[in-house]
Structure prediction request, 426 residues.
Amino acid sequence: MAQKNIQAIRGMNDILPGQTQVWRYLEDQVKAVLDGHGYQEIRMPMVEETRLFKRSIGEVTDIVEKEMYTFDDRNGDSLTLRPEGTASCVRACDEHQLIANNARQRLWYMGPMFRYERPQKGRYRQFHQIGVETFGMAGPDIDAELIVMTHLLWQRLNIRDKVTLQLNTLGSNEARANYKAALVEYLSARKDELDEDSQRRLESNPLRILDSKNEQTQNLLNDAPDFFDYLDEESAEHFTQLRALLDAVGVEYEINPRLVRGLDYYSKTVFEWVTTELGAQGTVCAGGRYDGLVEQLGGKATPAVGFAMGIERLILMLEALNVIPEAVHNYLDVYLVAVGDVTSGAMQVAAQLREQLPNLRLQMHMGGGNFKKQMKKANESGAQFALILGEDEVANGQAGIKPLRDQSEQVSIAQTDLAAWFNQAL
Ligand code: ATP
Ligand code: MG
Prediction:
């Protein structure tokens, strides 16, 4: 029996030509916004010691309990494919003294993350995030900057009306602990009415019950203690100021007291940008403040706040909303048609043009063939112009240019004028 060919791992996707154009478009938009605010890129390894994630994300979170790709390397060390970037970023910053002496940092990174989840639309086992982390700034101004930056990005991507900002504060560790106790007391008395997952979380991670998707559990929570009654004064003030800043710059938000986020390290501000365009996987960007994490990982106490966005989900959204500019899919300006015994002459013309116009996207036809066949390829390529070189042209230092996107006539010009001509036309 024929063996089935090897396929990609379930939940890990190839990103194919055509799709990569869209990825680059999105990445370029994000980078432009980040560059515009003075954020610098950092690149971390994809594999870290397992204990880095256990210590930061938290032992009883979904990620650490059941979603990590953990393995022993040949040395017997327990390593993990990173499920997120914040922990690695903090490790790197501490290791290289980027945040020593209260130094401020505004950083970003991009790359694959790995979580053993049930693959479905918008949820994969290898997915990609663009993450942004800031260190050394304790006030609500930087929280606001991060949110305003994402808001600007949505505007540039033409999806601003399709995402809503959900905002909450988790207060100080102490406030959270007090609230946790009150919530556990309330829910313990009604344990039988909770869904199975929430019953388990009552022991392990009770705050996570707040964002349970179970309707009966949500109903039960309507009369639960209100976190805002437990909020410490400093966090309350921070939250008020953040809201005032967002109001002042015109970023709308919804306060969602049930927004707690899946990771243990958050405190004070948490936020999510959500959309109704993607079904259950509606969060496209999520983040918050994690003032305790650096210290928790062995560094000096350092205020920090950041977010991460899911690239696949954003792309699904851009596609669903049909807001990807047409030009994103064009990868060629010029298709060089070389008919007859002209290969070396055509290659020289191409080399000359590339030198004069470094950004020109020119592809030369390879493998010969008659004029008609090569023009067919030129048309299929999506290029804007065919540059035509036959034996006569090469002999006379001339070239033909045929516009491919409209019915304009072919023109004939001197090869020495090509660069100027394309510079003008493209
Ligand atoms: P969710 O509640 O959807 O599982 P999360 O709270 O686990 O998300 P974060 O760890 O905050 O997500 O990651 C930030 C963003 O990364 C998410 O908002 C989402 O856009 C994206 N993301 C997270 N997990 C996945 C995944 N398995 N596949 C695709 N994108 C993901
Ligand atoms: Mg998750």
Q: What stands out?
A: The radius of gyration is 27 Å. Residues 335 and 363 are 5 Å apart (CA to CA). The chain has two domains: 19-172+232-321, 331-425. The first strand starts at residue 40 and ends at 41.
